[in-house]
Amino acid sequence: MNKSKRELIGLLLKWAGKDKYYLYLSVICSLISGLSTTIPYYAVYKIMENIYSGTCTKGVIVNYCTLLFFGIIIRFILFGTSGVLSHKGAYNALFKVRCLVINHMSKVPLGSLSERNTGEIKTVLNEEIEKLELFLAHHLPELVFYISGPLAIFIYLCIVNWKLALISLIPLVLAFLIMGIMFRGTDKMMERASHSIASLNSTMIEYISGMKLIKAYNMGSKSFTKYSNAVEDEYSVWKKISRKMGPPYAMYIVIVECGLLLIVPIGGFWFLKGSLSASVFILFAIVGSLYLTELRPLQELGSNFAQVLNGIRKAEEILEIPAYEGGTEFPTKHSVELRNVTFSYDNKLNILENCSINIKDGEKIAIVGRSGAGKSTIIQLIARFYDVNKGKILIGNKDIKEINYEELLKNVSIVFQKTFLTRGSVIENIRMGSEATIEQVREAAKKAQIDDYIMSLPDGYDTLVGSYGSRFSGGEKQRIAIARAILKNAPLLILDEATSAADPENQLEIDKAIHNLCKGKTVIIVAHRLSVVLQCDKVAVVENNTISCMGKHEEVKSKNKYYKDAWHDYEQARKTSYHMGGGRA
Ligand SMILES: Nc1ncnc2c1ncn2[C@@H]1O[C@H](COP(=O)(O)OP(=O)(O)OP(=O)(O)O)[C@@H](O)[C@H]1O
Fold first, then answer.
1. Is residue 84 part of a domain?
2. Is residue 488 very low, low, confident or very high in pLDDT (cuts 50, 70, 90)?
């Protein structure tokens, strides 16, 4: 839904919660500071008036100088206080908005997040939300300050001589007309700019992640055309914005400063005619043209404002993705059933059709099938990363849609195909936010066969993992992930090709780790090495978008051609060895 500017600002203040009161106080300080701009002008005018009327005494000078002094002090102290309050409110609000968005993202289906690219989400969390600081900490108080100051001076000038005061406004009217032209259509341009920065961000992430590949194939940055196209796009968007806004901006600056061109000749003429006193003429000649230049920053605020509104819209778009709310506790029985499930990622091509599986509480099932058959899809549906299009998934005979989402995630452990380690220490990576003691973490790591290795590192469990877990080999990362799952101790365990990154020695360690992990749990394992199947109670074959056969190993082997052939190939492969010159040994 397209919200108006006012609604968007209202939304931002709502997100700010109680911190909006800092912002209100900051606005009040700004307002008083702006109004006090008139005090020094008033004092100078009064001194001049006394000089011209011959009544200027030492007392008059001292009194008005004191007033002038306090006027300036009040103005700056209040403006400074306003800045402090607005920054406190703004950064607290920014923190809240980021938490709100991140928290919401953890409750929405993965599918709706995958529709956006990583760069887009990063742009919202980082750049777009950061822009809100601009509005809260700067625009809001400065807008009040830059408007209230000139407004107060204008009112004062009207009291002194309303005709000349109105003439002083002529450049302002022209400047506002130009500003109107300048900002027409900028909302769309800013949206386009935000889109192009999001695309640049995601391409950059892809470029950095693919650095190994780029080096391996000796591809220079130029060969990464997607990246250079994104840079070009960003450049062309900002070129267009500058072209549209540059000339009117220059005109705005010049016109706002042009007050003197009207006030001096007209005021001088009236002075000569005797309808204006010398002190009023000087007051207008000095103040009457200058006070409008205080409005100059308004233009800058205006152009940033469009970006701020866009930032609010983008954050709201994420917050509007429907989240999984409510639901009951996790069932005490941990059987898993897929009942006639149909699922498509894009609502066009069905990956699963009428697919059914039945896994009893405490049973271990291996899911096998060709690459791309839909094995990972099945386990992602069980963890409710996506919702099924038709049919049901039941845990303990309860539809997973009825189970509280956080409860579901708490009670399901997943060891993914690709192990993701965060940048922190090893212990943080195993704890994953839990309160586990070091003894508990070590116990889990021992069962995962990785404790000895971690202890051999110079900083032991405090060793930093490095970006993308670069400090560890594939097999070590997998065992850390298994330690995580052992520590989590969830009753339902899902393993997706957890053994793929291992060499034979690692394999043995990983097998022991998995054996420890699986004890007493309902286990669903995507088996890429067929030997894993022998450790399971039954096996399910994913074929032709469904489960084509399910049962005990021997039974499926005798009934299902794919499975029989796969075992035949696997056994042949075990008997065969290769030498470097090619051909069989
Ligand atoms: N996020 C996604 N969006 C669209 N299509 C997807 C997505 N993830 C997987 N697919 C498609 O769904 C199909 C099944 O993928 P899935 O990863 O479940 O297969 P798999 O059996 O686990 O394969 P592998 O053994 O190679 O890991 C594939 O054709 C894949 O291209």
1. yes
2. confident
Q: Distance from the CA of 110 to the center of ligand 1, in angstroms?
A: 14
Three-class DSSP category at 107: coil
Same domain, 312 and 367: no
Does residue 157's CB lie within 6 angstroms of at least one atom of ligand 1? no
C-alpha gyration radius of the chain: 35
Nearest alpha carbon, ligand 1 atom 5: 345
Give the number of the atom of ligand 1 that is nearest the alpha carbon of residue 542: 21
Is 488 a pocket residue for ligand 1 (Cβ < 6 Å)?
A: no
The protein residue with its alpha carbon nearest to ligand 1, atom 24, reads 371
Whose Cα sits closest to atom 6 in ligand 1?
Answer: 345
Name the one residue in this structure whose structure tokens are 């890429």.
528
Task: Provide the pLDDT for residue 468.
Answer: 47
Q: Look at 321-330, 350-359, 499-508 and tell me which has the smallest mean pLDDT.
A: 499-508
- Which of 293, 319, 345 marks a domain boundary? 319
Establish if 70 belongs to a structural domain: yes
Q: What angle do CA 372, 377, 379 make, to 5 degrees?
A: 130
d(CA 308, CA 193): 12
Residue spans of alpha helices (H) in 54-109 = 58-105
Q: Cα–Cα distance between 559 and 276 in angstroms, integer? A: 109
Task: Give the pLDDT confidence score for residue 218 in this predicted structure.
Answer: 61
Q: Which atom of ligand 1 is nearest to the CA of 114?
A: 1
Determine if residue 229 is left, alpha or beta; phi over 0 gives left, psi from -120 to 50 gives alpha, anything else beta: alpha
Confidence of residue 550 (pLDDT cuts 50, 70, 90): very high
Residue 582, domain member (yes or no):
no
Give the largest CA-CA distance in the chain: 119
- Identify the helix (H) or strand (E) that includes residue 198: helix 186-209
ipTM above 0.85, yes or no: yes
Contact 278, 271 (CB under 8 A): yes
Please state, in angstroms and rounded to a whole number, the distance separating the CA atoms of residues 421 and 435: 18
Number of domains in the chain: 2
Beta strands at 364-369 and 538-543: parallel, antiparallel or unpaired: parallel
Domain residues for 457? 336-575
Q: Print burial letters for 244-280: b (CB count within 10 Å at least 16), e (below 16).
A: bbeebbebbeebbbbbbebbeebbeebbeeeebbebb
